[in-house]
Amino acid sequence: MTNIKNILRLMVLAAVAFTMQSCSDEPDVDYGISVIKDTQTPQNDLDKWLYENYVKPYNIELRYRWEDNETSMNYILVPPTYKNAVRMATLLKYICFDSFDEVTGSKKFIHDNFPKLVHLVGNPGWNTNSSMTLGSSEGGYKINLWYVNHLGDVVYENWVPKDSVIRDRTELNKIFFHTIIHEFGHTFHQKVAYSTEFNQITGNNYLGGMYTSEFASPDDPQIQALGFVTAYAAYSADEDFAETFSTYVCSTKDEFQALTDRAGNSGSGKITAKLRLVKEYFSKNWNLDIDALRDAVQEREAKVKEVNFDDISM
């Protein structure tokens, strides 16, 4: 037993000696210098343009580079291309920010109320009910805009190429600006609640997730007949409020009139009553005339074929 103990002691001493020798052979290390390098991506033309047109006037950050912590893990998603990120940034300013600035008389309204973070995703999120997620808002501080790479696509009509998405007002509204105004609408009622009178118009007849199976298609005439501007408005009172606001602002006078005409007497009365409350809400709580806003948005949308949304020269 004594011999075994002596052998173990010798083995330990040898290991310590080897370790000390190995350490002494290492070069001097300055432990005050971090091995983690703080690398920053050099600013490109879009970064510089965003600083001048988003950060300085509105204190809004638009993120287009991929960041896992900003992106939902419930979908298979990709980042936007640089070119389409440029287009989304210039479109958002031209159609949305500039319209609000014109109507309110300054940049303060967007500065004070628009979410401080806009996050871009290249593709849409497909849901289990076959619907697409095109955007979302988070607590009034962030808006996610998906399907941005669609800005590089072509719109087809009867299987024939019609125009590029970037030049097609209807497609821009369908995929982007209806969603943007909708999500912006949520940020308002998350801060100041709308009248409970709005909820009472539809009452307990909201459908929740069942709305996708209730209607045959987005053009199902039953949607308006039941008093909803869109199928998604039937999901809940909050979505009904945001959809009424967004549909009105993103429609011409003739388009919204055609929508109420399809609703019939009962449906038209409900839609008109909801719109009245939405107008009163924004006028009373936010000093915002959404009739004037609709006119400003429509004036700009009518000119999308004339604007070069790839131009970020300063």
Q: Count of helical segments?
A: 12
The poorly predicted ranges are: none
Strand content: 5-15%
**Would you give the CATH topology?**
Collagenase (Catalytic Domain)
Q: Distance between the terminal alpha carbons, to the nearest Å?
A: 86 Å
What is the level 1 CATH name?
Alpha Beta
In helices, the fraction of residues equals 40-55%
Tell me the layout of helices and strands.
Elements: H1 2-25, H2 45-58, E1 61-63, H3 82-104, H4 108-113, E2 117-120, E3 125-126, E4 132-133, E5 135-138, E6 142-145, E7 154-157, E8 160-164, H5 169-189, H6 196-202, H7 211-214, H8 222-225, H9 237-249, H10 253-262, H11 264-286, H12 290-301
Parallel strand pairs: 1-2, 2-6
Antiparallel strand pairs: 3-4, 5-6, 7-8
Helix pairs in contact: 2-3, 3-12, 5-9, 6-11, 9-11
Question: What would you say this structure looks like, in words?
Answer:
- The chain is an alpha/beta fold and 314 residues long.
- It has one domain: Collagenase (Catalytic Domain) (3-Layer(aba) Sandwich), CATH 3.40.390.70.
- The chain has helices at 2-25, 45-58, 82-104, 108-113, 169-189, 196-202, 211-214, 222-225, 237-249, 253-262, 264-286, 290-301; strands at residues 61-63, 117-120, 125-126, 132-133, 135-138, 142-145, 154-157, 160-164.
- Strands 1-2-6-5 form a four-stranded mixed sheet.
- α6 (196-202) packs antiparallel against α11.
- The longest helix has 24 residues, at 2-25.
